[in-house]
Amino acid sequence: MLKKLALAAALILSPQLASAEVPLGDDGLHKPDWLRTTFLDMRQDLEDANALGLRLAVIVEQRGCIYCTKMHNEIFPIPEIDAMIRDNYYFVQINMFGDLEVTDFDGEVLKEQDMVQKWGVFFTPTILFAPEEVPEGQSLSDAAVAVMPGAFGKWMTLNMLTWVVNHGYESGEQFQKYHARMFATQRNQ
Length: 189
Fold this sequence. Notes:
Elements: H1 2-13, H2 15-18, E1 35-36, H3 42-51, E2 55-61, H4 66-75, H5 79-88, E3 89-95, E4 101-103, E5 109-111, H6 112-119, E6 126-129, H7 140-143, E7 146-149, H8 154-165, H9 175-186
Helix pairs in contact: 5-8, 8-9
């Protein structure tokens, strides 16, 4: 009986133990149910996201990435972050070493691994946030309103998702200042 109570207490007190692991696809990448399956045409993905009133976010990952695992199993499932993603974002996944064809906003078609190089992405996970409209001839990396390179904790992730949705990049307040201002009240929560 004591062992059962101790296990129950550990599950309640440890969100990492209580959360289920996000399943992996055949490509070895995490496949949360909020991830969109598309033809990887950024122009079409943006159109679809806009039609749903969502923001397009492209997440670059790789097989075996411990930081991707951390984000998918510990950070993205946090209720506030999960809700923010589901209510506001259209996430598309790119495999850093994949061979699927990706069409960039500028019309260039490359394999995933080559597109990632074109975009200058070196770390996984990296999230590129697209604006609602991309000027003709620009690539995703040129047009992105924000880039989140790497794994971050709860508040940094939530604040970045919120800042993008609220068009913080248009306010003149840089993200780091926004995050510091928000974190001043969040750190005690």
